[in-house]
Amino acid sequence: MLEPVFFAHADALVRNDSDALMEVAARFEEGGYMLLAAEAAAESGNRALFGRLMGYCEGARTPALALMTATPLTRREREIAVLAARGLTNKEIASSLVISARTVDNHLSNAYAKLGIATRGELALILSDDNR
């Protein structure tokens, strides 16, 4: 039954309660309602949770999701992220850009944090959405 979750969602929004919104996101996720879960996560401000849940939403766009605007990547972070999303290893990226693999790792870590993601698969999804 979704009515109690919808009520909890509305109540958490009215109270601007981030913790309650994260709980609502978890309840929607448990029920398999990933887009609703991602919206609640966006409204909570939890970038990591939002990024994980958006991986299930195939590039969906809603007003609630627009609330969670990612911090823009620097030119170098984006350049490295694109190469990583294409499947290049850190070592291959470092070699092609004439930088150290550690520098590549640092740029990717920064990009992941800004985007609220944790994997190259999520990175590929986000970057493919940007290119539509």
From TrEMBL:
<dbReference type="InterPro" id="IPR036388">
    <property type="entry name" value="WH-like_DNA-bd_sf"/>
</dbReference>
<keyword id="KW-0238">DNA-binding</keyword>
<feature type="domain" description="HTH luxR-type">
    <location>
        <begin position="66"/>
        <end position="131"/>
    </location>
</feature>
<dbReference type="Pfam" id="PF00196">
    <property type="entry name" value="GerE"/>
</dbReference>
<dbReference type="InterPro" id="IPR000792">
    <property type="entry name" value="Tscrpt_reg_LuxR_C"/>
</dbReference>
<protein>
    <recommendedName>
        <fullName>HTH luxR-type domain-containing protein</fullName>
    </recommendedName>
</protein>
<keyword id="KW-0805">Transcription regulation</keyword>
<dbReference type="InterPro" id="IPR016032">
    <property type="entry name" value="Sig_transdc_resp-reg_C-effctor"/>
</dbReference>
<keyword id="KW-0804">Transcription</keyword>
